[in-house]
Amino acid sequence: MDGFSMDLPAGARFVLERLTGAGFAAYVVGGCVRDAMRGDAPKDYDVCTSALPEETKRVFSDCRTVDTGLVHGTVTVIARGEPYEVTTFRVDGAYADHRHPDRVDFVRQVERDLARRDFTVNAMAYNPWQGLCDPFGGRADLRAGCIRCVGEPARRFSEDALRILRALRFAATNAFAIEAETARAARALAPDLAHVARERVTAELCKLLCGRAAGAVVRAFPDVLAQALPAPLCAEGLDAVPPEVALRLAHALHAAPDPGAALAALRLPKRTERAVRELIAHFGAPRPETPAQARRLLREIGPERAAELARLRAWPPGALEEALARGDAYSIPQLAITGADLAAAGIPAGPGVGRLLRALLDGVVEGEIANERAALLCAAQHWNLQEEESCR
After folding, report:
1. Is the distance from CB of 329 to CB of 363 less than 8 angstroms?
2. What does each of the 392 residues of the chain score in pLDDT, given as a tens digit?
3. Dist CA 178 CA 304 (whole Å)
4. Closest CA to 149 of 140, 161, 135, 136
5. Running DSSP on this structure, what letter comes out for residue 288?
6. Which residues pair with 104 in a beta bridge?
7. Is 113 helix (H, G, I), strand (E, B) or coil?
8. CA nearest 329: which of 362, 305, 284?
9. How far is Cα 359 from Cα 44, in angstroms, rounded to an integer?
């Protein structure tokens, strides 16, 4: 591409220079080229080369290397203290499981390697001496904001069904459109997502939902997403929710007939699943307007979840933040009195102590008792006398 150049880190340039100096073709490839072309900082730099794995290891015999995946042609080279995956140009065999090729064959031409990749925007390679290799129009599609499969979309998606969700995810995160033939193939082959490991599906779905154009993708592809998650997703207002997984999932699922079943199907980390369940359970809670309302909410779901709920519902700062800033008590450990204090005041040990502490917390939360030791002891002794009298 005329005028295009990448500012490569020292390690990546070293790897390319060493391989080309040894007589092999070598390029950085895929996402790093795409991101650099958009003006974004690449997260990592993958290298593809005409060198076979054993040739790569010989070229870097003076460096530390890791046999990351020799069957698929990948050797990790540690250069300038950073790891770089170096993979031999290859073509893939049949995909019997709709996810992984049964075999790969190594080739010497970068164009053949790029032809096996998923989307045109990911099928570009670059080195500083030859510039950009873009045989499938990735640059033009990137400029147009278009997700298009390399070659025949039905074949790409039949090979690896996860690419269907990746297409939707790229569209959501980049606010891109999915090219018509690619979209048709995604819809037609969406049932093949059943062959993909649930963890991989969930990872792509979470990234999709956190995209800046997630709402448009959810509206446009409900049939595809239904194969990934057995629940209708709410697109309305989704893009206004902060792009945090728990918040976006809670918004997307809050109106589903059985959000619990959908969450169970996702197999999320326990902490995330618990957060989403609690946010959905309190999705319709009114914004706290008084100190007591704020303390009630904090007692029920805790400060972390309450803060998430405030972000989810876009509540302006108010009573909740003020209660936290004051250090208002909303749990028994925050009371200015303990069970030991009650025992020292002559209140008999036993289950009644727990009931009494809960009653004191109720009084503090409702603003009926000050969270001060003297006031709490006085209230506790009064209630204990009343209980003794009622038992006579």
Report:
1. no
2. 457 899 999 999 999 999 999 999 999 999 999 999 999 999 999 999 999 999 999 999 999 999 998 888 999 999 999 999 999 999 986 666 555 666 789 999 999 999 999 999 999 999 999 999 999 999 999 999 999 999 999 999 999 999 999 999 999 999 999 999 999 999 999 999 999 999 999 999 999 999 999 999 999 999 999 999 989 999 999 999 999 999 999 999 999 999 999 999 999 999 999 999 999 999 999 999 999 999 999 999 999 999 999 999 999 999 999 999 999 999 999 999 999 999 888 887 777 788 899 999 999 999 999 999 999 999 998 887 776 666 55
3. 38
4. 136
5. P
6. 92
7. helix
8. 362
9. 56
> From residue 304, how far is each of 307, 308, 324, 340, 365 by CA, in Å?
5, 6, 11, 29, 18
| CA–CA distance, 169 with 223 (Å, rounded to integer) | 15
The alpha helices in the chain, defined as continuous H runs, are 10-21, 31-38, 53-59, 110-114, 138-144, 153-159, 162-174, 180-189, 198-209, 214-220, 222-228, 245-253, 259-266, 270-281, 291-312, 319-326, 339-344, 351-365, 373-391
What Rg, from alpha-carbon coordinates, does the chain have? 29
Residue 349 — φ and ψ, nearest 5°? -70, 160
Compute CA 259 distance to the chain's CA centroid, rounded to the nearest angstrom.
19
94/271 Cα distance (integer angstroms):
39
Of residues 222, 223, 164, 236, the one with CA closest to residue 195:
164
Other residues' Cβ atoms within 10 Å of the Cβ of residue 140 = 13
Instruction: Find the length of the chain.
Output: 392
CA 208 to chain centre: 8
Alpha-carbon span 244 to 246, nearest angstrom:
6
Interatomic CA distance for residues 118 and 183, integer angstroms: 14
Whether the CB-CB separation of 121 and 136 falls below 8 Å is answered with no
* Exposure string for 349-369, b = 16+ CB within 10 A, e = fewer: eeeebeebbeebbebbbeeeb
Q: What tokens appear for 19 in the block? A: 């391989």
